[in-house]
Structures are given as structure tokens and as C-alpha cells.
């Protein structure tokens, strides 16, 4: 079934700039979103989604009220919501296997909606900018094409990507919005920053850096965050990169060095150090081959659970 805008099938031959001109509602929606100041989302009741991760939940969730992700330069953040059941997914795409990832996410949302006759699937896309390598535009095209190939009708509500999410500062192109959150109770999305990106931020980043695929990290039925088990071969390059200066790390490990947030290099160093210290995670982190599981405590914060606590 097609990807729709105002009940019309999207024209994949159009650029993002052309699409928002043809569909004024999309243009106004992007303008409204980019004009909003970023809100700082507190850890209580919040689940952070890293690159190549997604999470799905519903308004009935008593642990998670907000899903969010940031640090998207050429990456895109997608929110897919069933307006009938309220099932909501947030995913952080980097172009690793877009078509398969979109299908996986659509199926995950629909799995919560099988008993809901009314409602429709709505999608919001945010991220990217006018980067020199045009990686943003490539990912935008892949996402729109993949959404258009799904079995169910999907309605495009927000398109704030690539050139529509671009600004110039001192002659340098930058994203206007780096991160968003979605209120899973209402479906509202907004630009956001996050105090907390855990738990296990380095472990999750190490999985992505070593080539891990897109994965679902949250079980909404049990309200548990499951991390792993993950496996990778000893990452010998970690030793090399930890010896390099900040500028070399920035220029070689980023898809868009001029647009990265200030903490990019520190984050890469932290991830590399983690990889150096955990060459075989199956031994050091997952000796029982079970995930590292977290749930929200009474204060609304993630807390590791073990054994019969789950």
C-alpha cells in the first residue's frame, strides 16, 4: 500500500523541498516544529533510543511515558504511531539496512494493534541536513521509498528532514533539530535534549560501532529494557583511535565533522575505551548468555534486575 500525504500517494521523484511546496501542511508542520525550543526531558518515565535501536510501547505503559533520541546529524529519527491503539515506535536510522528495518518497525507497531479496527498508521520523520556528502538526502529517499512499500497505508504527518531541517551558521550547514521526543500517551512530538542516555550507554554504542543491526530494546508487555546479549570480535582498532588526537577522531569517525555536537569526540573515546576493556563481551558482560535487564523503579528511574526479580 502507498505512503500517503493528505490521502494522496507520495511522489518519490520529488525532493523534500518540492514535497513540502506541493503539500503546504507538511511545510507548515516543519516550520512549526523547527521554531519550537528544545525541551530538556528528565529521566523519570523516559526511555532513550540510541542509533540502530528502536522501542515500541502503548499509552497503557505504566513505566515509560516518553521515547526520545538525539545526536542525529545525517541520521534520521522516525516515529510511527497507530492512532487507534496508540502503539508508538521511535527508531534512530543511519542507513545500515533501511528497507528491512522499516518493515520490522511497522510489524512491531501492528503487533500491538491487531484488535483495533479504527485508527491509522502515522509517521513523523526528523533529521539530516544539507551535508556535503548528501548522506542525509540518501537516507531520506530510502526511508520514504521503504515506507511506500509497506503492506498497510501509512500517512506522512511530519517531514522535517534534510534541506528542510537545515540552517546556515557562519557559512556552515547544520541541522536545526538534533533530537526529538514523543509523548506515548498523546502522540505529540517535540525537539528535545536529554539528561540521561542510559542505561549501559557505552555498551549499546559499542554494539553499534562494531556493526550490530537495528534491534528492539524494550518489551512493553513486561515493561523491561533488555540489553544484549551482544557479541563482537576483539576490536583492535580501539587501541589505534585512543592514541589519536581529537581532530583526527572527529574528521575520520564522523559522517559530518562540522555538524557534530560538542560531546562527539568524548563519546567516541568512551566507547573505544569500553571496547578495549571488553574484547569478549560474552565473557565479561554476558557470562550466562542472558540480557542485562532493567526496569523502572518507584522513582521512575532505570534499575537493573536479576534472577527472580524479573
Automatic annotation (TrEMBL):
Higher taxonomy: Eukaryota, Metazoa, Chordata, Craniata, Vertebrata
Protein name: Protein N-terminal asparagine amidohydrolase
GO biological process: ubiquitin-dependent protein catabolic process
GO MF: protein-N-terminal asparagine amidohydrolase activity
A GO cellular component entry from the record: nucleus
InterPro entries: NTAN1
Coiled-coil intervals: none
One Pfam assignment: N_Asn_amidohyd
